[in-house]
Design goal:
There is one protein chain. The protein is α+β, with helices and mostly antiparallel strands. The protein has a single domain, classed as Alpha-Beta Complex (Aspartate Aminotransferase, domain 1). It is built from 4 helices and 9 strands, in the order E-H-H-E-E-E-E-E-E-H-E-E-H. It has a 7-stranded antiparallel beta sheet with strand order 1-2-3-6-7-9-8. A two-stranded antiparallel sheet has the order 4-5.
Length: 134
């Protein structure tokens, strides 16, 4: 059976964020932590070695594969801040048009820096992701 490599662990979120070299990205990471903490009412936890997550849920696919995943989370990656939202972003085109500069992937929102986006719109998307999570 397949085992997910990205799992909840006890590593320090602050230690991880402090390893981010780029000052702007580190500042943005702290701002996202504050926003996600406010929205979720949860403390940030490390998932794997590079994702900060909030809340969790258990899933089970028809294939029999199952595991746990964060309701919302992010990673301050080199190319962009990657936000993991538990919602189908394609259903939020009208909201995304108001966001600013971003890219999307399968279930992820990529932002170069927070000054590129409307923070109120970002908050709406994060809330939607948290509320849509199982």
């Amino acid at each position: 059976m397949y085992e997910l490599k990205t799992k909840l662990n006890d590593a320090s979120v602050l230690d991880f964020i402090n390893t981010v070299d780029e000052t702007q990205k580190k500042s943005d990471a702290y701002e996202i932590i504050d926003m996600m903490k406010e929205i979720s009412g949860q403390e940030p936890k490390m998932w794997g070695g590079s994702i900060v997550g909030f809340g969790s849920y258990h899933y089970k696919y028809k294939s029999g594969n199952e595991g746990d995943w964060m309701k919302i989370g992010f990673s301050p990656r080199k190319q962009a801040l990657t936000l993991y939202l538990s919602c189908d972003l394609s259903q939020h085109e009208a909201t995304l048009q108001k966001l600013g500069k971003y890219k999307t992937g399968k279930g992820c929102l990529y932002i170069k820096k927070l000054t590129d986006v409307d923070m109120n719109v970002l908050k709406v998307l994060i809330e939607e992701g948290y509320n849509k999570a199982p």
